[in-house]
Design the sequence.
């Protein structure tokens, strides 16, 4: 998906990007739907606007209105909306309804942004809130603005947390399920305006991801940390297409090979490695979440273990 065109909103004498919105009822429905006005989105949409339309909202005298609408057209005659006849906007076949001023009875929260950070641009979907220096949340009841809050500092903390986690990923191998836990602490959807909005930002804890990293540091003291991490890494690269017997050639000690076989359970039969029969040697335990890259290194004819990170 190409980077998508975003809706805008005019508020407090300034135009902002509308990052998203959340209805107080918890419903996920659009503020504007073409079908509500008898409009049909044709096929063959441009890649930067898969919705087929762009809305420009406005807070006028503390009332929320849809002020302008740009919508893709196949060249057929467009309907009149609120007594406004659309005009052809550009060669991309978009038409614009200017100043249609449709009042909206929205009850919920909107998230606005400006001062885009170009270095955080992503060429896919909608840009997430951490890509802007200034963030505001606006609360509405029946379309009337009731309050607003500057959330810029919260997202600044989130960016700092993301930087720490990203640096950690560069220096260490992290199993997919742990990556998911870390990303969920600050991730936003990019596929639609509604999905990228998190209404729980007031309870955002910038240290949550750091606490997960601390857990991983503690887990590293247990031999099972090494084992699960190696299994995850090996699974990503090879999907277990190789046998445990072949792991000996990358420097894994006999004791760890036995533990690996036990963790895998009954999936594989016992194998002979180095003329020795692998037997379970580690008691069954609940493996804690692990994260570091486990690597092995062979030096001459002597096996040695090196833990990267």
Sequence:
């Amino acid at each position: 998906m190409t980077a998508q065109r975003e809706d805008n909103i005019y508020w407090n004498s300034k135009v902002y990007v509308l990052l998203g919105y959340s209805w107080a009822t918890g419903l996920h429905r659009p503020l504007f739907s073409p079908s509500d006005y008898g409009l049909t989105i044709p096929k063959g949409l441009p890649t930067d606007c898969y919705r087929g339309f762009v809305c420009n909202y406005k807070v006028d005298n503390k009332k929320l209105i849809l002020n302008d609408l740009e919508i893709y057209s196949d060249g057929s005659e467009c309907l009149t909306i609120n007594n406004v006849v659309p005009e052809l906007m550009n060669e991309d076949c978009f038409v614009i309804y200017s100043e249609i001023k449709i009042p909206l009875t929205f009850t919920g929260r909107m998230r606005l942004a400006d001062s885009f950070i170009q270095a955080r641009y992503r060429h896919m979907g909608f840009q997430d809130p951490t890509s802007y220096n200034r963030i505001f949340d606006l609360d509405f009841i029946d379309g009337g603005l009731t309050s607003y809050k500057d959330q810029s500092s919260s997202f600044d903390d989130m960016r700092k947390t993301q930087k720490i986690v990203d640096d950690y990923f560069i220096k260490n191998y992290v199993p997919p399920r742990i990556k998911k836990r870390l990303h969920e602490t600050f991730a936003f959807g990019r596929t639609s305006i509604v999905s990228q909005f998190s209404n729980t930002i007031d309870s955002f804890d910038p240290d949550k991801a750091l606490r997960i990293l601390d857990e991983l540091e503690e887990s590293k003291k247990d031999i099972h940390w090494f084992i699960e991490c190696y299994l995850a890494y090996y699974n990503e690269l090879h999907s277990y297409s190789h046998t445990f017997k072949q792991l000996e050639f990358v420097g894994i000690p006999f004791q760890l090979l036995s533990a690996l076989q036990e963790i895998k359970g009954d999936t594989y039969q016992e194998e002979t490695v180095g003329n020795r029969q692998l037997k379970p040697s580690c008691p069954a335990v609940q493996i804690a979440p692990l994260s570091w890259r486990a690597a092995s290194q062979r030096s001459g004819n002597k096996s040695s273990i090196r833990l990267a990170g």
In short: The chain has two domains: 8-152, 223-307. The chain has six helices and 14 strands.
